[in-house]
Amino acid sequence: MTMDQRQQIEELVYRSSLALDEGDFKGFLRLCDDSFRYSVVAFSPEIRKEMTWLDLDKAGMDTLFTNLPRHNSDHSPLARHVTVYTVAGSGDRADVVSALQVFRTTLDGGGTGLFAVGRYHDTVALGVGGPSLLKRVVRMVTREMGAGYHIPL
Amino acid sequence: MAKNSAAWDAKPKFPSSHYVDSRIYTDQSLFDEEKEKLFKSSWIIACHESEIEKAYDYRLFTHPTGVPLIIVRGEDMKIRSFYNICPHRGNTILYDPAGNAKRMTCIFHAWSFDARGNCIDISRGEQGYQDRYCKEDAALREVKAELGFGGFVWVNLDDASCTLKEYIGPALDMLEPHMQEPMEVFHFHKATVDTNYKLWHDTNSEFYHDFVHYFNRITGMMQPGYFDRKYVGYANGHASVGSMEIKYDAYAGSKKRAVGWPGLAPGGWILIDIFPGMTYNLRTSVLRIDTVVPLGPNKLVVEFRGLGLKSDTPEQRAERIFDHNTIWGPFGRNLHEDLLAVMGQGRAMREGTDSRWVIHGREENSTIHDEIGMRHFYAEWSKRMGRAAHDPFRQGHPDPARAAA
Asked: Fewest 10 Å CB contacts: which of B54, B59, B143, B397?
């Protein structure tokens, strides 16, 4: 993998986070391959099992994003802080592991607190037009998020 | 016309059973009393049998009174419960929320206990205690534990309490036919929110709040049968609401549920509230169980469990997990809205806000938007507390018995 490819992959991950932070869901989906799949997983030490909290294909994500404004929801914004740790590529795809920290800022007063931590495990397609997201698994370390959230992390 | 101070303070124009004083949600002394009078002697769900399948499997549970408990399956496969408190120097014995421990050893001074609560080793016991204190003196405090009603492990801190069967009575009869097959927990998460535990239970006891699920009304409130669902109250403050068919495919982008539940009509939904803070919620393909663990008058942990059938194929289980999380997961479309709603109540009614009354006044022949479920709860609350929920400090009625009545 060239340095240029790695830089493009890192920028893809960062752009995806920026799009979600800004509520630009169409923009997020434009960064995803047609076969994109998104999931949120966590291990529960209480029941000693892997849990899947969200598992959607690209169409499912599109529906979710479309319906979001129709629900009552917490409107305090999230800010995702992502650091790409590793990029392992071979051929037409790369596996990317990034650290994820999500901060929430209150609407009244603007205090910011840590909302969740975890990792992005992304699979990236390396096409001629540049990299795109094939799969994102958000592995949560944080499992307690108060009232939860309607927008995927 | 907006209200002035006197009008705001005036009692609502309803029978006293149809409103409560909002201080029952905020007052620390009432909260402390609730722990003693309500939670200590009630049967509480601590976990499910599938969480402790093998001999020596254990699970920790913080009882709503604050007592830390160990739930452990013995070598005889019997499930027992003990305080997670070392009788030596009051230390925590087990730390991981679940595990397998043939010996439960306190890390502080290495005193060890078996799954029957016996102390099996006091490190350098004879040297220190000679014949003044021995292992037999150092057993764990055992708590009543019973298995039942869908394979749940129930605990009761009151040694003189009634049996679990007596406590539940017929309240879960509607669900019993659907809980004959062994079940398994596949989902667990906690939500800590700033609200009172009763406000969460209230939300599970009335469906008028379906308006908070505004966009999701298409699957329920706007479908035939919704307004036919009826509340039934049972002894000890429990209540149920009858079933209807949920039209999942009416929600944009959704489809009918691919898997069902034994004996339950397709799209069926049964909800049963168990006093003082547990809810069985069987919705088409998944059983959800809520257990409240109040931390203070305006601080609450809710433990959420999702269960499927032990006999599920991987494909069936995947469908149940999807169904569960679509509605009830931390990123699901309904649970988030419910929690936001009760947090809003906690915010508006917290100490010092001059909130005054909460109205439970809807009467619709006990059907889905009738608030009889909450009234039934507060009648039991008043009886057990010896205080009327509408007048908890006996300012209007000096005789507690009369006030409760």
From this structure: B54
